[in-house]
C-alpha cells in the first residue's frame, strides 16, 4: 500500500477539460444558487475579482450589477472560451478576462468581492483553500485591509458510514463513486446519520489540515463498506432573514480498505485525516473504522475514551 507521502506526490495541477465546464453550465442547482448568492453580495458600483473563472459565467452574474470585474483563468483554452461567451452576453464588456495563475494574481486596485469556485467534495484535489489563503496574504501586503467579501462564504463537510454493494454485473469492484443528490441508490444503505467533521469559514484564517475522529451508533446490522462525504457550500449569508444560500456538491463515496461487520446499536469509531487540496488517495489511505468494545456513543465527533475492538 502506498504511503501518504507517495500518494501526495501525484500531480494535481492538470486542467479541467472544456466539456466539464460546459456540464457545469447545465447544472441548474449550481447555476441558480451562485446567481442568487452573487446578486445578494455584489452591489452597484462594486469591483469584483473571480479566481478560476472557467467559462466566465460567475463573472457574468457579477457584471450585471458591478462596475468592473476581473476574471482570472490559467487555462489558455478556457480564457479563449470565456472571452467568446462573454462577448455574446450583456455586460460582458465589464469583464476583463486575464490569463494568469490564481496563486499569483492581484487586481490593479482594491476589490469589494472575490468569487472563487475551486470546490471539490471534501475540499480535496482543487486548491480553493490554498488559493484564498495566498490571495489574502498578497492582498493585505499590497492594499492593506479590509479584505473583500468571499463567495463562497463557508463550507460545511460531513461524513456518513454506508453499506454499498460494489457488484457490477457480477464484477466486484470497490471504487470511488460520485453520485447525484437527486437519484436514490438501491445498492446503498445508510448505517447511521451523517456527522459534521469540519467547517471552513473563508472570511477567516483557515487551517488546511483536517484530522477527525468520531463515533457512530449503528442504526442497522450489516457491513460498513464505505464512507460518504458530503459538502455543503454556504455561498452567502442573508443577515436580514438569518438564512443562507447553499449549494451541495454531489456525494462522494470512498470504500474502506477493511469493511466492518456491525450489529444495530453498536458503536463504530471512524477516523481520517487529509490536507485541503490533497488527492483522493491521500484521504483514502488514512480512513479507518472499527467497533468499540462495549462501546456507548459519546456523541458524534467526540474524542473517544473506549478501546477499539480488534479483529472485526
Automatic annotation (TrEMBL):
Question: Is the keyword ATP-binding in the record?
Answer: no
Q: Which UniProt keywords apply?
A: Methyltransferase, Transferase
Query: Could you tell me the Gene Ontology terms of the biological process aspect for this record?
Result: methylation
Q: Where is the Methyltransferase domain?
A: 48-136
GO terms (molecular function) for this protein are: methyltransferase activity
Please name the PANTHER family in this protein's record. PROTEIN ARGININE N-METHYLTRANSFERASE (PTHR11006), PROTEIN ARGININE N-METHYLTRANSFERASE 3 (PTHR11006:SF53)
Q: What is this protein called?
A: Methyltransferase domain-containing protein
Query: Whose protein is this, by species?
Result: Actimicrobium antarcticum
Amino acid at each position: 500500500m502506498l504511503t501518504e507521502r507517495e500518494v501526495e506526490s501525484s500531480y494535481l495541477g492538470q486542467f479541467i477539460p472544456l466539456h466539464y465546464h460546459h456540464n457545469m453550465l447545465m447544472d441548474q442547482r449550481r447555476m441558480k444558487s451562485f446567481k442568487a448568492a452573487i446578486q445578494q453580495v455584489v452591489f452597484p458600483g462594486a469591483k469584483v475579482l473571480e479566481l478560476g473563472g472557467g467559462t466566465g459565467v460567475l463573472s457574468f452574474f457579477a457584471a450585471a450589477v458591478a462596475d468592473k470585474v476581473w476574471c482570472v483563468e490559467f487555462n489558455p483554452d478556457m480564457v479563449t472560451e470565456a472571452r467568446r461567451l462573454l462577448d455574446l452576453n450583456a455586460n460582458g464588456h465589464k469583464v476583463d478576462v486575464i490569463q494568469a495563475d490564481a496563486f499569483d494574481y492581484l487586481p490593479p486596485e482594491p476589490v469589494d468581492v472575490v468569487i472563487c469556485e475551486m470546490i471539490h467534495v471534501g475540499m480535496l484535489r482543487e486548491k480553493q483553500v490554498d488559493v484564498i489563503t495566498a490571495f489574502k496574504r498578497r492582498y493585505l501586503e499590497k492594499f492593506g485591509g479590509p479584505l473583500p467579501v468571499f463567495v463562497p462564504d463557508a463550507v460545511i463537510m460531513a461524513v456518513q458510514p454506508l453499506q454499498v454493494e460494489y457488484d457490477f454485473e457480477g464484477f466486484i469492484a470497490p471504487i470511488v463513486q460520485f453520485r447525484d443528490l437527486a437519484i436514490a441508490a438501491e445498492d446503498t444503505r445508510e448505517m447511521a446519520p451523517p456527522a459534521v467533521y469540519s467547517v471552513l469559514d473563508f472570511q477567516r484564517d483557515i487551517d488546511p489540515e483536517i484530522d477527525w475522529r468520531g463515533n457512530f451508533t449503528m442504526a442497522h446490522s450489516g457491513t460498513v463498506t464505505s464512507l460518504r462525504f458530503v459538502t455543503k457550500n454556504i455561498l452567502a449569508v442573508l443577515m436580514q432573514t438569518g438564512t443562507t444560500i447553499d449549494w451541495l456538491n454531489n456525494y462522494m463515496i470512498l470504500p474502506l480498505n477493511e469493511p466492518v461487520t456491525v450489529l444495530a446499536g453498536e458503536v463504530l469509531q471512524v477516523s481520517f485525516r487529509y490536507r485541503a487540496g490533497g488527492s483522493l488517495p491521500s484521504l483514502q489511505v488514512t480512513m479507518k473504522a472499527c467497533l468499540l468494545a462495549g462501546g456507548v456513543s459519546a456523541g458524534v465527533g467526540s474524542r473517544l475514551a473506549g478501546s477499539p475492538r480488534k479483529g472485526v
